[in-house]
Amino acid sequence: MKKLNLILLGSLVFIGCSSKNFEPKTFINKKLPQKERNSYLQDYTKNTLTFKELKLKYTTTSFFDDGIRGEWVYFDEEGNKLEKFVKVNKDLAKRGDKLLLIKEKKVVKMPYLIASATKKNNLIALVFENNSIGIYDLNKDKIVFYKQYPNVLAAKYLKSSPLFYDNLILFPLLNSKVAIYDLTNNKFLRDIDLADDNIINNIIFMKIVDNSLFISTPSRLILFNPNFLVNYNADIKHIIDYNGYLYLFLINGKIVKLDTKLKKIKEIKLPFADFFAPSVCNGNIYTIANKYLIKITPDLNVTVYGGNDFDLDSPLNIKNCKIYNSNKVYFIE
Predict the structure, then answer these.
(1) Is 277 left (phi over 0), alpha (psi -120 to 50) or beta?
(2) What InterPro entries does the record point to (predicted)?
């Protein structure tokens, strides 16, 4: 009985801790200018926004039918119509197994549901939801390379996209691996396995910063260099690269500044902060935690602003000094 009571007490303590929210000791009341729009933020990636707006159209089916119908229309930040597609990057939008080439206004059907994609010239590098990869050649109108990997049940956080790197394509898989394809010799080279202690996660960050390749899962950031390889282990939720530094937003409320050798420059902690969509605006990084707007300077000095009613149950993204949240736009500066 005593053992059971201890277990119950431990469970209550865990529940109590896990339900705590970020509450700053001090904050500045700053109500951001905002604007309500007819469009709603439907979806987003790290670099793109997809909006939807209800449009009326008229199609009569009988004498008694007034013909009024409501239809959601999708479009991007620039106003480009996306039909029912969600924007992946500046070139592409996806919907199930279909890929929209935005500038060309051309739809290409793929064999499987699309997780992420990147276009360069006539080639489209794809990662599919079944954890397979492929290369589609627009000149030949067909897939010229395909490789299947073991399926995975789920993927955490935002997926990274394939990367064209010199004469290589790097495919960020959904099971902690990166597949490498050689474009010069048109052949698959190898896999890089980033799994840590048998924990399988997808790749959340893959980018060239200061001529070095960085790849990260939610538990591990790796610097690949011709002369050395460096690991940085942490529970990572977001990574921002800015002015030659990497800023890691961790699950435990920490923000860590690293140089491009993954040497820690500084670290701060905001207890219980669950960071939303960090983004750079006018030389500072902004993020949201528990309805507070947080401004972070490059030296990790923090200012917290209150007074804004962000809806954290709806899609929320920060881009170009604007916070998009449901049908509202907040202007940071």
Answers:
(1) left
(2) WD40_repeat_dom_sf
Structure tokens of 48?
């793109």
Distances (CA, A) of 62 to 6, 57, 59, 218, 258: 69, 15, 9, 55, 66
Q: 12 in helix, strand or coil?
A: helix
pLDDT digits (tens, 9 = 90+) for 244-267: 999 999 999 999 999 999 999 999
Nearest to 209 by CA among 233, 243, 173: 243
Task: State the Cα torsion 40-34-276-153 to the nearest 10°.
Answer: 0
Give the fold, CATH level 3, of 47-157+159-185: Thrombin, subunit H (2.40.10)
CA distances from 116 to 107, 121, 126, 235, 330 (A): 15, 17, 6, 23, 29
Ramachandran class of 37: left when φ > 0, alpha when ψ lies in -120 to 50, beta otherwise: beta
**pTM of the complete model:** 0.86
Tokens 């006539």 correspond to: 122
Angle (CA) 87-246-305 rounded to 5° is 75
Domain ranges of the chain: 47-157+159-185
